[in-house]
Write a structure and sequence with these properties.
alpha+beta, Nucleoside Triphosphate Pyrophosphohydrolase
């Protein structure tokens, strides 16, 4: 029997016994230990039971199943501000014509574009944030994800998460969507971003994304909020009020994570794990990475 290239590589490295072990492992469901029944809540609580790593998570249902699509890189930016002791987040309602999550309230964000990797930045990622990104992305993709989160937020809300660019405005034209940002001598401030979660859209959806959720302080952003063709009713929403809006399930889960981080701010000088929402063998799980 002739082996395929991948099989030959495994045999060459680990021997026949190693290859047979590989086949046995691939034939088993590789679901992280601790998976439990699915919740139906909007947040990190199923009834009175907190959702913890390894548990099966709620997931959005769809009326029809679409052909398999490979998830595309996407990035979301969650701006948070405090009004007294009350946390607020910036959210908007996706247009009814949107193929993905129409008429739902979400945070600004969208897919990564190829030019995002080449846009100049004012400041690099915090080393711990960069390390978390590199768990599932190359260095170039990591930069593109951060830039995409900031670009999409600017496009959809008008707010700029940027700092002065050394040398002033770039001479190169990076596209219409950067007008009012780069041409003002500002560039994305990646050091303002904290990576708080990653989520992969389950199979069978009309769009699938490998989305990174970044959080930043509203004080680090500038500009005036404006509506866009992609998102309307953009406003600051109290965290508890946000849970009552029409939300995609993943947005409700992320709101739960935001609430936890606001209540118990992490030590930014130390590395930490973040939740990953992923589907494994038709089970929708929250695990850590």
């Amino acid at each position: 029997m002739r082996l395929c290239g991948r099989a030959e590589a495994i045999v060459g490295r680990f021997g026949t016994a190693g290859y047979l072990s590989y086949l046995r492992q691939m034939s088993k469901p590789t679901i992280p230990a601790g998976a439990v029944v699915r919740g139906t809540d909007k947040g990190y609580v199923h009834g009175d039971i907190p959702l913890t790593p390894g548990q099966e998570r709620p997931v959005e249902t769809v009326e029809e199943t679409y052909p398999y699509m490979r998830p595309r890189d996407a990035a979301t930016l969650i701006l948070v501000r405090m009004k007294g002791d009350v946390p607020e987040v910036l959210m908007g309602c996706r247009a009814a014509k949107s193929a993905f999550m129409p008429n739902r309230y979400v945070f600004p964000g969208g897919r990564v574009d190829k030019p995002d990797a080449h846009v100049p930045v004012a400041t690099p990622f915090d080393p711990h944030v960069k390390e978390r990104l590199l768990h599932a992305a190359s260095e170039q993709r990591a930069k593109a994800l951060g830039v995409a989160a900031i670009r999409e937020t600017f496009e959809e809300s008008g707010l700029i998460l940027g700092k002065p660019l050394a040398g002033g405005a770039p001479k190169k034209d990076y596209g219409e969507h950067w007008k009012g940002f780069l041409d003002q001598g500002l560039a994305p401030a990646l050091d303002s971003l904290d990576l708080i979660a990653r989520a992969v859209t389950p199979p069978g959806r009309p769009r699938r994304f490998n989305a990174r959720f970044f959080m930043a302080r509203a004080e680090d952003a500038s500009g005036e909020i404006r509506h866009s063709s992609e998102m309307g009713d953009i406003r600051w929403v109290q965290l508890d009020e946000a849970r009552e809006l029409p939300l995609p399930t993943i947005t409700g889960l992320i709101l739960g994570e935001i609430g936890r981080l606001v209540k118990e701010p992490p030590d930014r000088t130390r590395q930490r794990k973040i939740p990953l929402f992923v589907t494994v063998h038709r089970k929708h799980l929250m695990i850590e990475e």
